[in-house]
Amino acid sequence: MSGTRTRRLILAFFVTAVTAAGCMFFYKLFAFMTTIRKDELAGFAFDPIIIYGVVATGFLCLLAWAFLSGQFRNIEKPKYDMLERVREQERAEGIGGSE
Protein backbone atom coordinates (compact mmCIF):
# COMPACT_ATOMS: atom_id res chain seq x y z
CA MET A 1 0.00 0.00 0.00
CA SER A 2 1.19 3.46 -0.72
CA GLY A 3 1.78 5.95 2.07
CA THR A 4 -1.06 8.20 0.96
CA ARG A 5 -3.55 5.35 0.86
CA THR A 6 -2.48 4.15 4.30
CA ARG A 7 -2.89 7.65 5.71
CA ARG A 8 -6.35 7.93 4.20
CA LEU A 9 -7.37 4.59 5.71
CA ILE A 10 -6.06 5.62 9.12
CA LEU A 11 -7.84 8.96 8.87
CA ALA A 12 -11.08 7.26 7.82
CA PHE A 13 -10.83 4.84 10.75
CA PHE A 14 -10.10 7.70 13.16
CA VAL A 15 -13.01 9.79 11.91
CA THR A 16 -15.36 6.79 12.02
CA ALA A 17 -14.31 5.84 15.55
CA VAL A 18 -14.60 9.39 16.88
CA THR A 19 -17.96 9.89 15.18
CA ALA A 20 -19.34 6.63 16.57
CA ALA A 21 -18.07 7.42 20.07
CA GLY A 22 -19.52 10.91 19.87
CA CYS A 23 -22.90 9.61 18.75
CA MET A 24 -23.00 7.12 21.62
CA PHE A 25 -21.98 9.82 24.08
CA PHE A 26 -24.75 12.15 22.93
CA TYR A 27 -27.27 9.28 22.92
CA LYS A 28 -26.43 8.50 26.55
CA LEU A 29 -26.51 12.20 27.43
CA PHE A 30 -29.96 12.49 25.81
CA ALA A 31 -31.18 9.41 27.74
CA PHE A 32 -29.84 10.94 30.94
CA MET A 33 -31.56 14.25 30.25
CA THR A 34 -34.92 12.53 29.71
CA THR A 35 -34.43 10.69 33.01
CA ILE A 36 -33.83 13.99 34.81
CA ARG A 37 -37.20 15.30 33.65
CA LYS A 38 -39.04 12.21 34.92
CA ASP A 39 -37.41 11.76 38.31
CA GLU A 40 -35.89 14.31 40.68
CA LEU A 41 -33.48 11.74 42.19
CA ALA A 42 -31.81 11.10 38.83
CA GLY A 43 -30.73 14.73 38.63
CA PHE A 44 -27.98 14.26 41.23
CA ALA A 45 -25.42 13.52 38.51
CA PHE A 46 -26.32 16.41 36.22
CA ASP A 47 -23.36 18.62 37.17
CA PRO A 48 -20.69 15.89 36.82
CA ILE A 49 -22.10 14.91 33.42
CA ILE A 50 -21.94 18.50 32.20
CA ILE A 51 -18.38 18.87 33.51
CA TYR A 52 -17.41 15.60 31.83
CA GLY A 53 -18.87 16.85 28.56
CA VAL A 54 -16.94 20.13 28.75
CA VAL A 55 -13.67 18.33 29.53
CA ALA A 56 -14.25 15.78 26.76
CA THR A 57 -14.94 18.61 24.31
CA GLY A 58 -11.71 20.30 25.37
CA PHE A 59 -9.70 17.13 24.79
CA LEU A 60 -11.37 16.65 21.41
CA CYS A 61 -10.42 20.22 20.46
CA LEU A 62 -6.81 19.61 21.52
CA LEU A 63 -6.70 16.38 19.52
CA ALA A 64 -8.11 18.11 16.45
CA TRP A 65 -5.60 20.97 16.82
CA ALA A 66 -2.70 18.52 17.12
CA PHE A 67 -3.85 16.54 14.11
CA LEU A 68 -4.49 19.59 11.92
CA SER A 69 -1.24 21.33 12.89
CA GLY A 70 0.82 18.29 11.88
CA GLN A 71 1.88 17.05 15.31
CA PHE A 72 1.38 13.42 14.17
CA ARG A 73 3.23 13.63 10.85
CA ASN A 74 6.61 12.29 11.94
CA ILE A 75 6.25 10.85 15.40
CA GLU A 76 9.57 8.99 15.27
CA LYS A 77 11.76 12.06 14.64
CA PRO A 78 11.84 13.40 18.24
CA LYS A 79 13.16 10.05 19.47
CA TYR A 80 16.09 10.14 17.07
CA ASP A 81 16.72 13.84 17.75
CA MET A 82 16.95 13.12 21.47
CA LEU A 83 19.40 10.25 20.92
CA GLU A 84 21.52 12.44 18.66
CA ARG A 85 21.64 15.20 21.29
CA VAL A 86 22.76 12.67 23.92
CA ARG A 87 25.54 11.47 21.60
CA GLU A 88 26.64 15.06 20.95
CA GLN A 89 26.66 15.82 24.67
CA GLU A 90 28.67 12.66 25.40
CA ARG A 91 31.18 13.59 22.68
CA ALA A 92 31.49 17.11 24.10
CA GLU A 93 32.11 15.72 27.60
CA GLY A 94 34.47 13.02 26.34
CA ILE A 95 32.24 10.17 27.52
CA GLY A 96 31.55 7.04 25.54
CA GLY A 97 34.74 6.88 23.52
CA SER A 98 34.70 6.53 19.74
CA GLU A 99 31.87 4.88 17.87
Description:
The protein is mainly α and 99 residues long. The protein has three helices and no strands. The protein has one domain (3-73). 77% of the residues lie in helices and 0% in strands. The longest helix is centred in the first third of the chain and has 36 residues, at 3-38.
Percentage of helical residues? over 70%
Contiguous runs where pLDDT drops below 50 for at least 5 residues: none
Structural class: mainly alpha
Count of DSSP strands: 0
Order of H and E elements = HHH
Question: How many separate helices?
Answer: 3
Radius of gyration: 23 Å
Determine the strand fraction and express it as a percent band.
Answer: under 5%
Based on Cα principal axes, name the global outline.
Answer: elongated
What is the arithmetic mean of pLDDT?
81
End-to-end Cα distance: 37 Å
Number of domains: 1
The major sheet is characterized as:
none
List the helices and strands and how they pair.
Layout: H1 3-38, H2 46-68, H3 77-93
Task: Summarize the entry for a quick read.
The protein is built from three helices and no strands.
Quick tags:
99 residues; mainly alpha; 3 helices; 77% helix
